[in-house]
Design a protein that fits this description.
binds zinc ion; alpha+beta; Rubrerythrin, domain 2; about 70 residues
């Protein structure tokens, strides 16, 4: 289930919503003030995932190079 994090521009409330394929971002409203003036933000969990993949430990690198690449 994809969970998206939104921030309300009207009251600065941050909230998470599960968006199924049938749901649309334009139909998401703020649970605090019911405003549609919201923006999608990058969730903290996925941001951490991306940044950690950028720094590969030295041990993992040497193990990969001996095999000659990713497999
Ligand atoms: Zn709001």
């Amino acid at each position: 289930m994809p969970i998206y994090e939104f921030k309300c521009n009207a009251c600065s409330k941050k909230f998470e919503t599960i968006l199924t394929s049938s749901a649309k971002v334009s139909e998401v409203t703020c649970p605090e003030c019911q405003s549609k003036n919201i923006q999608k933000t990058i969730s903290a969990s996925s941001y951490r995932l991306n940044s950690s993949s950028g720094s590969i430990p030295a041990g993992a690198l040497s193990g990969c190079s001996s095999k000659g690449g990713f497999s």
